[in-house]
Structures are given as C-alpha cells and as structure tokens.
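Today's session is about reading a structure prediction critically. Students often jump straight to the picture, but the first step is always the sequence itself: look for stretches that repeat, for charged clusters, for runs of hydrophobic residues. Only then move on to the predicted structure, which in these notes is written as discrete structure tokens rather than atom positions. Here is the chain we will use throughout the hour.
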Amino acid sequence: MGYKLNIGCGINVIVGNDWTNCDNSLLAKLKRSPLWFAIAWLINRGIVSEIYRDYPDVKIVDIRRPLPFPDNSADFIYCSQVIEHLYFYDLSKFLSECSRVLKPNGVMRILTPDLNKIINLYQTRNLVKFEENDGLDSKYSADHLNLVFYPRSWVSRDKRTRLVRIMDAIPEQHKYIFDFETLSSLLLESGFNTVNEVSTEVSAFPDADQLDKYQAISLQIEAKK
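Below is the predicted structure for this chain, in token form.
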C-alpha cells in the first residue's frame, strides 16, 4: 500500500502504515503549542472530556485552502464526519483538491451523516441506535434528530455551562446533510470517475475497519479517480 491521507481526523488516527493524519481543529492546534497545559488542566477538573487527554500530534491542514500535497501523490484519502461542516463553495474546492492529489485510480472514502438513515431512525423511533451513535440519553426522537442537524445545540434540558457558551463561537455546526444522490453528483463534478456506496464490512479500503465510526447513521462512499 502507498501514501495515505486521513483528513479531518480529530482523535480518529492511524499510526504508521503510511498514514498522514491531518486536522485543523482548535485542539489540534493547541496540542502543538505551549498552551496545551490549559487543556490538561481542564481535563483534570472534568471540564473537558477525558478522551482528549492523549490527543494526537497531527499535521495541521485547513481544507478550505489548497491542500499542501503534490499532484497525483496519494493512493488513498480518508475523510470521516468532516464534509458536512463545509459550505458548498468550500466543499466543491476541497473535493477538487482531493481529486488533484490522488493518483489515477486512487480512492477517496467518505463517511458523513446519511439523510435517509437518519430519517428512518426518526420515523421508527429507534432510540437505541440513535444513542449508540450520538451518546445522547433522551427518550425523544426529535432530540436525536436535532443533534444530527445542529450538533452545537447540545440538546439538553440542563443549564448551558460557561464553557459550552464559549464553544458556541466555534463554527462547527453542520451545513448540509447528504444523501447518495447529492454527494455522488458533487464528487463526479469534482473530477472523480466512479462513486459507490461501500459498507465497512465489504470495503477493501485500507484500515476501514479501524477508522469507520457511526456506521449506523453514516453514508459510506468510495469515489475513484
């Protein structure tokens, strides 16, 4: 296997196996600065989740700008739970950049919230499956549905903490929830030749079984250049 990019990785990284993990989150930037001690202080006091204690060192990449990788250099690009945070203008540019960076016959694997799956869970009131994927303890399907569309809403009946109010200033709201038709058409317009839905179980994409998260509510697409 050749050179691989994991773009917008957050804490979902693969170490070794020719992977380059890329992110542009505030935590990723703080991890590389002397200010990381402040995050550690917040974690120690239970204000920030314990899962961020061992936040990985990653390459800082702003996907709203040209990707800092040469033409035809990557065999694989992985991008999970990222594109729904971009406006269409930025997303079109990003997908075109991914097509530029991929080698001929290279593959991009995308996971993003799936409009069809989410509507089905809402209509069937599948609270168990919702909670498995969003971690929200609520008996109301509407709460889970709204958390998908507005993740910064922090659906809760408790008072919003000062930290949550500060975090509201970070532009992490979802901009668009895709179905296969909308996303596949955008990928084809961006320079990809074929687009298919491919589940984790049958995917030949490297390390998909370790990388894929939230499969029950995600559209899983592999686009080939």
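Discussion point for the tutorial: The chain has nine helices and seven strands.
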